[in-house]
UniProtKB/TrEMBL annotation:
UniProt source species: Ruegeria sp. PrR005
PROSITE patterns: N6_MTASE
Signal peptide: none
Enzyme Commission number, as recorded: 2.1.1.72
Swiss-Prot/TrEMBL catalytic activity: a 2'-deoxyadenosine in DNA + S-adenosyl-L-methionine = an N(6)-methyl-2'-deoxyadenosine in DNA + S-adenosyl-L-homocysteine + H(+)
Gene3D superfamilies reported for this sequence: Vaccinia Virus protein VP39
Keyword Transferase in annotation: yes
Protein name: site-specific DNA-methyltransferase (adenine-specific)
Stretches assigned to the DNA methylase N-4/N-6 domain: 122-453
Membership in a protein family: Belongs to the N(4)/N(6)-methyltransferase family.
InterPro entries found in the cross-reference section: DNA_methylase_N4/N6 (IPR002941), DNA_methylase_N6_adenine_CS (IPR002052), N4/N6-MTase_EcoPI_Mod-like (IPR002295), SAM-dependent_MTases_sf (IPR029063)
GO biological process terms, semicolon-separated: methylation
Length: 621
């Protein structure tokens, strides 16, 4: 019997629970000095770091995952950057109408740029990060700057530098560097997940233990869902020194475990074949299920008499009938007990096919016969990418069937769910989304991010792994279209420095001698479409919305999703053009700050929209 608390609510614990919802990694276990009981406690050092734009000192002993560089990695996650996404029509397929994105650039920067546009919108994230085997390349993130310096420096150069470095076992920070690389990316990825979203992460034995702890810190230990074991090879490696490593792991973390549940998998023909109708029961096929159980059950010991007259004193030794005698008699009267063909067997319960679930609960052991193996993955890659040098074929690519299984479990076909992979590689995740949409008629969308990592040997048609993934997707889309599928391609965007000149972000460094150069605050060589996408990013507008370009009164005007946003970056904008655009009653409108024909027109813009379209948000760049 539970006892009444006999005291007022423990508000501190309630508040800590609220903090845990916002910052799971900032709540840990601590021993109460007065009672000795273990209670939830706030890791104030970590919370200070979450809320700070510089590195906070002062570690204390506590239960948590820690490593050299953790604080710096968190500063990096929270620091702003002066970057944008530039559209690339020539590398896209169905640019104006596609709602898929394929992004070239550093995934940390891409995740930051996408924060506003896709906050809480992504249903599934799958990533296949470097396994840290000692032969992998990892991101060389810059921890030397605080947030202010990072904002300035990240926007001041077009030379990205060498972003990927080898992480060999000789490195004294072998595990720490890997954790510092992944931590800020998962931290930002969590923000993009919907409340009922989930992340699947592939890994092997080298870092599975650290990844589990890192995931607990980012998503909260209570939101860990499962560790899936995938049989990745179809034959043992006899050359292995100790054991043939036949599997990889896939760790699953939910944004909120109480809101996310996996879909059931379709029942297989083999499962259906187990149901027979040996007695021509009008309710259809059935299978016999054991009526006994191991767990002690007070009402589970009683004698039964079979239709042939055989008396059975009770269940086998050490087992119990799983149902009470009363329920047994009801089932027997309803012809739901099977006694065998001659009516003298130990009773079994008939389970009818028509009454079982239409699907099966997913298991944590995935065999290659169901979801493919690494050789399947390479064959698929070779089908869609025409390599000139076999040395460029990736060894770590995942089978499309494996990723289709994940997409199947974690998304709904007809809800336009977004599937994201920010370690996209050769784009098998995006391929899997297109393939699964074909299977079930779904309309899922994908966002893939891949840095321009050079191929081992440059080729004529591709220089980087990003190019490899793009070639694969182009050929997959073309194949689906040739087969009559209603499929739209993808919009290629590239992470780049801001379209705005440096003084736009650091006016304190402006010199009087620079004033003439700053008449226009947009960098040379940036197009109107470049400016449009920076506006979409800054305003947090969905980057996959359809875009229409029209000429209105001699000026180029962009209509995003008809009237979600209207943009005109031409010069010489007149009051008549402003009035015509206001007549569309857009949700948002944006102009170039120095694009108006006169200061009077610029001053009147807000008043015109206030009169003709009062709900429109008006801005200038």
């Amino acid at each position: 019997m539970d006892k009444l608390k006999m005291h007022s609510p423990d508000l501190s614990q309630d508040n800590i629970a609220k903090i845990r919802d916002l910052f799971p990694g900032c709540v840990t276990e601590a021993q109460d000095e007065a009672t000795g009981a273990v209670r939830l406690a706030v890791d104030f050092d970590q919370l200070r770091q979450e809320l700070s734009d510089h590195i906070v000192e002062g570690p204390q002993e506590r239960y948590r995952l820690d490593w050299p560089g953790k604080r710096e990695a968190l500063v990096l996650a929270n620091a702003p950057i002066a970057k944008t996404l530039r559209p690339c029509r020539e590398e896209s397929v169905d640019f104006d109408s596609s709602d898929n994105l394929y992004i070239e650039g550093d995934n940390l920067e891409a995740l930051k740029v996408l924060q506003e546009s896709f906050l809480g919108e992504v249903k599934l994230i799958y990533i296949d990060p470097p396994y840290n085997t000692g032969r992998d390349f990892i991101y060389d993130d810059d921890f030397s700057q605080d947030a202010k310096d990072y904002l300035g420096a990240s926007g001041q150069t077009d030379d990205e530098g060498k972003r990927l470095v080898a992480n060999t076992e000789a490195n004294g920070r072998f595990h720490s560097d890997w954790l510092s690389m992944l931590y800020p990316r998962l931290h930002l990825a969590k923000n993009l997940l919907a409340d009922d979203g989930v992340v699947f992460i592939s890994i092997d034995d080298n870092e599975v233990d650290n990844l589990r702890k890192l995931g607990n810190a980012v998503f909260g230990e209570a939101n860990f869902v499962a560790t899936i074991v995938w049989q990745k090879v179809y034959a043992p490696k006899n050359s292995a020194k100790w054991f043939s490593e036949d599997h990889d792991f896939i760790l699953v973390f939910a944004k909120n475990k109480e809101s996310w549940f996996p879909n059931q998998l379709p029942r297989t023909d083999e499962m259906e074949a187990r149901y027979k109708n040996l007695d021509d029961d009008p309710r259809g096929p059935w299978k016999a299920a054991d009526m006994t159980a191991r767990n002690a059950y007070d009402a589970g010991v009683y004698p039964v008499v079979s239709p042939s007259g055989r008396k059975i004193d009770g269940p086998p030794t050490g087992r119990y009938w799983a149902i009470s005698e009363e329920n047994f008699k009801k089932l027997d009267a309803d012809n739901r007990i099977w006694w065998g063909k001659d009516g003298s067997n130990v009773p079994a319960v008939k389970k009818f096919l028509s009454e079982v679930s239409s699907g099966k609960t997913p298991q944590t052991l995935w065999f290659y016969g169901d979801v493919g193996h690494t050789q399947d993955a390479k064959k698929t890659l070779l089908k869609y990418v025409q390599f000139e040098n076999t040395e460029n074929v990736l060894n770590s690519v995942k089978p499309v069937e494996l990723l289709q299984r994940i997409v199947q479990l974690a998304t709904t076909p007809n809800k336009r769910d977004i599937v994201m992979d920010f370690f996209s590689g050769s784009a098998p995740t995006a391929h899997a989304v297109l393939a699964q949409n074909r299977v079930d008629g779904g309309n899922r969308r994908f966002i893939g991010v891949q840095i321009a990592e050079p191929l081992r040997i440059p080729e004529t048609k591709m220089k980087t792994i990003f190019d490899m993934g793009r070639m694969r997707l182009v050929n997959v889309v073309n194949e689906l279209k040739a087969e009559g599928e209603d499929v739209k391609g993808f919009r290629v965007l590239k992470v780049d420095t801001s379209n705005m000149k440096d003084v736009y972000y650091r006016p304190d460094e402006l010199k009087q001698s620079d004033l003439l150069d700053m008449v226009d605050n947009v960098k040379e060589g940036r197009t109107a479409e470049d400016l449009l996408f920076q506006v979409l990013v800054d305003w947090g507008v969905d980057l996959t919305l359809p875009i229409r370009r029209e000429t209105v009164q001699g000026k180029t005007v962009f209509f995003v999703d008809d009237n979600a946003l209207i943009a005109c970056f031409d010069r010489g904008i007149t009051e008549d053009l402003v009035k015509e655009l206001a007549g569309h009653e857009p949700l948002r409108v944006v102009f170039r700050d120095n694009g108006f024909v006169s200061d009077a027109v610029k001053i009147n813009v807000t008043q015109i929209f206030r009169q003709l379209s009062p709900s429109t948000e008006v801005k200038a760049i």
